[in-house]
Amino acid sequence: LIDMEASYAEYEEWSEEPIPETVIKNYKKALQQLEKYKPYEEALLSAETPKLAEYQAYIDFEMKAGDPARIQLIYERALAENCLVPDLWARYNQYLDRQLKVKELVLSAHDRAVRNCPWTVGLWIRYLLAMERHRVDHGIISEMFEKALNAGFIQATDYVEIWQAYLDYLRRRVDFTQDSSKELEELRSAFARAVEYLKQEVEERFSESGDPSCTIMQNWARVEARLCNNMQKARELWDNIMTKGNAKYANMWLEYYNLERAHGDTQHCRKALHRAVQCTSDYPEHVCEVLLTLERIEGTLEDWDAAVQKTENRLARVSEQRAKAAEKEAALAKQEEEKAEQRKQARAEKKASKKAKKNRTGDKRKADDDDDGEWGQEEGAEQPSKRHKGDGDGDGVLLEDMEVETGLFGRSGPEKPDHPANQKEKASTSRKDIPKVLHDSSKDNVTVFVSNLSYNMADPEVKLKELFESCGEVAEIRPVFSNKGTFRGYCYVEFKEEKSALQALGLDRKVVEGRPMFVSPCVDKNKNPNFKVFRYSTTLEKHKLFISGLPFSCTKEELEDVCKAHGNVKDIRLVTNRAGKPKGLAYVEYENEAQASQAVLKMDGLTVKEHVIKVAISNPPLRKVPDKPEAGKASPFAVPRQVYGARGKGRTQLSMMPRALQRQSNPVAKAENGMVQNSPATSSEPPEEPKKMSNADFAKMLLKK
Q1: SS3 99
Q2: How confident is the model at residue 88 (pLDDT cuts 50, 70, 90)?
Q3: Quick one: where's region Disordered (predicted)?
Q4: Is 34 exposed, middle or buried (0-12, 13-18, 19+ CB in 10 A)?
Q5: What backbone phi and psi angles, to 5 degrees, belong to 548?
Q6: Of the candidates 479, 474, 504, which has an alpha carbon nearest to the alpha carbon of residue 489?
Q7: Cα distance between residue 420 and residue 699, in whole Å
Q8: Average pLDDT of 561-567?
Q9: How far apart (Å, rounded) are the C-alpha atoms in residues 88 and 113?
Q10: From CA 244, how far away is CA 213, in angstroms rounded?
């Protein structure tokens, strides 16, 4: 219909007879149709590949119009440019399954979907259902299921879902009116294979089976109990389920009890509830109540008495355990408070001792100055000849003496040049005189903590104020200086309003003077010792990529040029160390999972500046947190706090010492001259530490012939 006006004008000019009324009427009707579609077509023409959002809007419009041919065509146009988008395939296949229902068309679309997006388990499940719906041969469906198992899903739960869909299909094939059949045996063998597959293949790959609640085994037990009337097999399956760590959950026992209640007998129900009372740890009260309800309706007096005694004993133990846990938690909290108070007191004592020491040093210097006033004539002759490390040359000493003399007689001597080092020393001295301002914890909500700044930053107050004023009005900036007056690389920035402090957190990792600046909330570590700020996710993110092996010279812009060819890049983060040096790693965030999956297929193994990079979906490994020892109990296997290997704090602890020397059971001590002294093996005294040698001792040893 586009450019139809020009075609109509040519037709009008060519025709010798007047244009019929019907043609004019249809032409005007076509123009009206064109006006409806024109905005969507123009949006597609102006948009950049892959035009997913524009196609989605066009599809929604066509779905409302309801023309099946046009809906199919717009889906096909969209998939031609977005063949790696699983959601688009899912919507298209759902429309075909529910509306068109044409076998060849439906199965072809499903086949193309799993071929383009094999990692999406939902597409495989829809394909199996569509094949069953159109009565495809059982062998072909089984073959397609095997392909799905080899597709390489990225989560353990995906394998549970595909197995469940296939088992549902096999269950629907069985005629349970017969006691035994080929289909029933195939279903049972498939259940057994599914349990073994999750235990072996999936658990080996993902370190988890993906089915902690054993849903497949539960469904197997329900099929055996309800459809096959085989309660013995169902009980065996539930025993197996409980041995896999589910015996402590009340809902698992109640599920088994309900199955036994519906298809078993009272004796097994009572037995199951008695075991549940003994093993349940999350909601024992609920299980006890169910047991008492059973005995109230069907039990004898002896059964009632036994149930009451068992539930009372169990609930008493539970109450005792909870009380102990509460006491232990209170003791730990109290211990943490005491430790915080001790640390606070120790800091106060240390500060007071430093202050007292400083005062004593000042008094001593004053006394020395007074002594020099009386006895300076005798000792003054030797003073100029003394020079300390870091002092200037002899002229500097003479100038200093001249300044003292001119100061006494009121004359002005030659001015001493002010070197940069002296300027820095003066700045440090001036900072020493600034009174220290203690942090007010009541203003933590309007304060941020800034760290990892350069120690050589000049005037950090001015520099940081310019930086943080973009977030809101800054009330105060408190940089932290050492006792010598040098900047320690961190400070507190206090704002007038809380929203400004929250906005300032967005400046985290901003590069300032060549180093990434860390900006975090101001939190009292004494009150919140476990508080840590990590702004990035540590779980699986399907729309984000992890790239390793990048050259250190690769910039953010260069990496973006490589990645944007496979989708819309929302964010790129180059990983650096605390000094701002790149580590050759990066995280790239795309708009959706489909674009990230496409980028993995296209970029993994790509060469960037003669470096082969590795690309994968971002899934950081879980960090194992060591168990904290109980308070007040020292472990018999306790180790010192700082234990390093043969290479100190190095990342690798590979020892360069030969194994033969490492196997020696009796250590040998070295004397000062390097000769080995054999200590008697029967001596129980610890070997003496070698005497520390000064530079003069080393010089004597080297010069000795």
Answers
A1: helix
A2: very high
A3: 326-433, 654-705
A4: middle
A5: -125, 165
A6: 479
A7: 36
A8: 86
A9: 9
A10: 9
- Residues ≥6 apart with Cβ < 8 Å to 262: 225, 226
Q: Which domains does the chain have, with CATH numbers?
A: 212-341 (1.25.40), 444-521 (3.30.70.330), 544-617 (3.30.70.330)
What integer is the mean pLDDT of 329-346?
Answer: 91
In this prediction the pTM is 0.51
Tell me the C-alpha distance between 93 and 108, whole Å: 10
pLDDT tens-digit map of 488-516: 888 999 998 888 888 888 888 888 887 88
Q: What was the pLDDT predicted at 701?
A: 81
Count CB neighbours of 547 within 10 A: 28
Q: Which residues, listed in sequence order, are joined to residue 481 by a DSSP beta bridge?
A: 487
Residue 1 C-alpha from the chain's centroid: 53
- C-alpha span between 44 and 37 (Å, rounded): 11
Residues across the chain: 705
Closest residue by Cα to residue 548 from 478, 458, 618: 618
Q: What is the predicted pLDDT for the residue at 364?
A: 61
Round to whole Å and give the CA distance between 433 and 167: 79
Q: Give the residue among 101, 115, 56, 110 at the shortest CA–CA distance from 592.
A: 56
Q: How far apart are CA 99 and CA 109, in angstroms?
A: 14
Contact between residue 120 and residue 86 where contact means Cβ atoms under 8 Å apart: yes
pLDDT higher than 60, residue 481: yes
Nearest 10 degrees: Cα torsion 260, 265, 266, 272? -40
Positive/negative CA dihedral, 223, 228, 233, 235? positive
Q: How many Å apart are CA 237 and CA 214, to the nearest integer?
A: 10
Percent of the chain whose predicted confidence (pLDDT) is above 70: 77
CA distance 501 to 472: 8
Report residue 222 as tokens. Answer: 């329900």
pLDDT band at 70 (very low <50, low <70, confident <90, very high): very high
Q: Give ∠ CA 215-216-217 in degrees, rounded to 5.
A: 90
Give me the mean pLDDT over the 205-214 stretch.
88
Edge-to-edge strand ranges of the sheet holding 569-576: 569-576, 582-590, 541-548, 614-618
Question: How many other C-beta atoms can be found within 10 angstroms of the C-beta atom of residue 155?
Answer: 17
How far, in Å, CA of 135 to CA of 139, rounded? 11
Question: Are the C-beta atoms of residues 380 and 400 closer than 8 Å to each other?
Answer: no
Residue with more model confidence, 211 or 657: 211
The residues with which 576 forms a beta bridge, in sequence order, are 582
Secondary structure of 107-162 as H, E, C letters: HHHHHHHHHHCCCCHHHHHHHHHHHHHCCCCHHHHHHHHHHHHCCCCCCHHHHHHH
Phi, psi (rounded to 5 degrees) for 481: -115, 155
Helices (H), 629-669: 659-662
Token pair for 419: 């070197």
Rounded-to-integer distance, Cα 93 and Cα 580, Å: 49
Confidence of residue 599 (pLDDT cuts 50, 70, 90): confident
- In the block, which residue shows the tokens 């549970």? 160
User: Which whole-number Å values give the CA distances from 257 to 118, 229, 292, 485, 621, in the listed order?
Assistant: 40, 16, 14, 73, 39
The Cα–Cα gap between 661 and 645 comes to 16
**CA–CA separation, 646 vs 648, rounded Å?**
6
Average pLDDT taken over every residue of the chain: 81
Residue 64 and residue 52: Cα distance in Å, rounded?
A: 19
DSSP state of 202: I
- The SS3 assignment for 239 reads helix
Compute the distance between CA of residue 317 and CA of residue 319 in angstroms, rounded to an integer. Answer: 5
Paired tokens of 526: 């004494």
